[in-house]
Amino acid sequence: MSAVICPLCRQRKARRACPALNHPICAICCGTKRLVEIRCPTNCPYLATAREHPPAAVVRQQRQDVGLLVESLRDLNARQSQLFFLAASLIARYRSSDLESIVDDDVVQAAGTLAATFETAARGVIYEHRPASVPAARLAAALKAGLAEAAAGGAGSPFERDAAVILRRIEQAARRMVEAGQAGSRAFIGLLERVVQRSDESAPEPDSEPRLIVP
Description:
- By secondary structure, the chain is mostly helical.
- The chain folds into 2 domains: 1-34; 68-202, no CATH class.
- It is built from 8 helices and 2 strands.
- Strands 1-2 form a two-stranded antiparallel ribbon.
- Helix 4 (78-93) crosses helix 6 (134-150), helix 4 (78-93) packs across helix 7 (157-180) and helix 5 packs antiparallel against helix 7 (157-180).
- It is elongated.
């Protein structure tokens, strides 16, 4: 009897029964695509084992992620921290209409120009700063719409100042990763995607959208 080949990589032997795909897959695809490309059910034994005993590399990555986030959240008040995680979630989940892929430099441009727009608005000057690249401009528009919706009618100088503060933090964090990495890097976006994914896993009601209360 010939060995079953993993339908995901089409290279390795499929040795793990995947309850999400209802088909055996290889161990490497199980480990790397879990909860990323595969919607694993909570009763999957491999998912449960991975959560109880994460590999050392995963633990190191989680600690690094936490360290970078703690630095970005330093001295922020509760409302600003909430706004920061909202913006992080918007970036992590962002998909443009034509499914173009954004990179960390797009995040730098989008967060920086949108922060400048909020800073001028807080001073009573209405002027929209625009990123140079089209992907960054589209991301900035999505961020602005998402933050405005979360404000729930509380837009004004306090909200604009807080939004500017957290967007500058995101700009700075993404810029550090761009400068430390390579052109076209998605290291910062990957960090946000991991954080949002872990947040989704622990959320009791993933379909509910909390609204930000802005005085």
